Amino acid sequence: MRAEELKGHLDALLLAALEDGPRHGYAVMEALRQNTEGRLDLPTGTIYPALHRLEQAGLIAGSWSVAAGRRRRMYQLTAAGARALSGKRADWRDFAAMMSAALEGRPCPDPA
Amino acid sequence: MSGPGLIDGYLAELSADLPARIVEELADGLDETYRRYLGRGLAQDAAARAAVAEFGEPQVVMAAFTDASRGRRTARRLLAVGPGVGTWWAIVLITARGWQWPVPVVARVLFGVMLIAVIGFLAAAALGRHYRPVCRAAAAGCVGTAIVDAAVTGMVLITAPVLAWPVAVAVALSAGRSTFALRNFHHALTG
Predict the structure, then answer these.
(1) Minimal Cα distance from A45: which residue of B?
(2) Which contacts of A51-54 are long-range, i.e. CB under 8 A and separated by 24 or more positions?
(3) B93-103: per-residue pLDDT in tens?
(4) Domain count, chain B
(5) Nearest-CB residue to B33 (from A44, A49, A56)
(6) Per-range mean pLDDT, top range of A5-19, B98-112, B125-139
(7) Which residue range(s) make up the domain with B124?
(8) What is the pLDDT of residue B47?
(9) How many residue pairs bridge chain A and chain B with CB atoms within 8 Å of each other?
(10) CA distance B24 to chain A (A)
(11) Is residue B97 located within the same domain as residue B24?
(12) Higher model confidence: residue A40 or residue B38?
């Protein structure tokens, strides 16, 4: 999957990648690769600005740590980020169900 | 260019536009990527090429950081509220026949020039492609916004013959906008 196809969904992917605990930028990308079985084709360098944007929005918190003599920026989900992730998951389920109903003729489940 | 040299060159290109703290974070990620390719058995040069390719074109990375910068976000917010605040002030000045007030021509011209400059700074910050110029333009726009708001507020409070409630609303709008601009000045400047 290419970057332009992810537009609008990258934030949810990044928040989900941080759900299990703090990670640095590269580890976030690795988690995304593992979770998508390597099908995510995204320039790693563009993950970092997205993390900065989420940090500015208060959805994740960044802090510096030292690993192997090198400073490393770690990110973790905030309470607001956890709530946002929960909302994005619900939105995605509704969207996916609606698209499946429209494209494949599957019955659209009752949103309630 | 050798493997480590290729990575150094990539980081140097980023350093030309991005702050050191961002480049430091990217360097860490790039080093991890490089080591992963080395671990897969690639030679140094091939590992460096693969790591740099995986990170993406420097221009793409720099553009993404510029879009995510606080300077750009602040400038866009100020540009978004600008027409509303400006329209309210225009209504106040037109209904009060502000052109008849005893304001020196030089002051009027200076105010107009300042207003145009502020809009220019904010537009440059909202549309610019390079991180540092965008942040500087946003910071200049923040200061300029506060000066423009202070100038028009001071002018009206000193020269207006009658201060009706629309003036109070306009002053409140300008005060709120100035506060926002000044509170975000440092973040805008540093990104």
Answers:
(1) B55
(2) A51/A14, A51/A25, A51/A75, A52/B22, A52/B65, A52/B68, A53/A11, A53/B68, A54/A11, A54/A14, A54/A15, A54/A81
(3) 898 888 888 88
(4) 2
(5) A44
(6) B125-139
(7) 69-190
(8) 95
(9) 63
(10) 8
(11) no
(12) B38
Residue A19's pLDDT band (boundaries 50, 70, 90)?
Answer: very high
Q: Is A96 exposed, middle or buried (0-12, 13-18, 19+ CB in 10 A)?
A: exposed
pLDDT at A45: 84
Whether residue B48 sits in one domain with residue B102: no
| Averaged pLDDT score across all residues of chain B | 92
Tell me, yes or no, whether B78 and B167 share the same domain. yes
User: Does residue B12 sit in the same domain as residue B83?
Assistant: no
Q: Is the CB of B65 less than 8 angstroms away from the CB of A44?
A: no
- Which residues on chain A are in Cβ contact (under 8 Å) with B60? 43, 45-46
Chain B residues within 8 A of A72 when measuring between CB atoms: 25, 28
Contact B56/A53, CB-based, under 8 Å? no
Task: Give tens-digit pLDDT for A48-75.
Answer: 999 999 999 999 999 999 877 888 999 9
Q: Does the pLDDT of residue B13 top 60, yes or no?
A: yes
Cβ pair A50:B54 closer than 8 A: no
B65: which 2 tokens?
Answer: 């950081």
Among chain A residues, the shortest Cα distance to B32 is held by A26
CB of B183 within 8 Å of a chain A CB? The answer is no
Segment 4-23 of chain B within 8 Å of chain A by CB: 22
Q: What is the ipTM of this complex?
A: 0.82
> Does residue A4 have a pLDDT over 70?
no
B60–A45: do the CB atoms touch at under 8 Å?
yes
Q: Among B65, B83, B99, identify where a domain stops.
A: B65
